[in-house]
Amino acid sequence: MPDGELNLTDILKILPHRYPVLLVDRVLEVRLPEYVKAMKNVTYNEAFFQGHFPGQPVMPGVLIIEAMAQTGGILAYQSHPEAKDRLFYFMGMDKVKFRRPVIPGDQLIMELTAVHRSTRAWKMIGKAFVDDQLAVQAELTAALVQ
User: Which residues are known to be catalytic?
Assistant: First the structure.
């Protein structure tokens, strides 16, 4: 698949995730093998808003990190198409900072840059923005496993 924008149909061909865990709606830019930018439209219809928190919905930080990890997974799978039958597992996260809440109606823009990559493990620096404001930043490590 060439560098560039990917729609939901393309994403479903790349990631094994499905509703309600698929947290990437569109890939806006891919520069193989080091950079990916993707989007998640956050709506009140998300199941997690029923309990987080009633009357004051906030997207759980762990799900923002998961959305960033899925974005990084798209970069890894696109960079290693021979690994399409392998799973991309989270190994760690460091330097996580939550800068602002993400609420229904927000458009989450995630940018991941690979700082280490191999056929087995990837480390990426990620940032997630809402309205050009930094919402979350983290370093994510994942492995492609059989």
Answer: 52
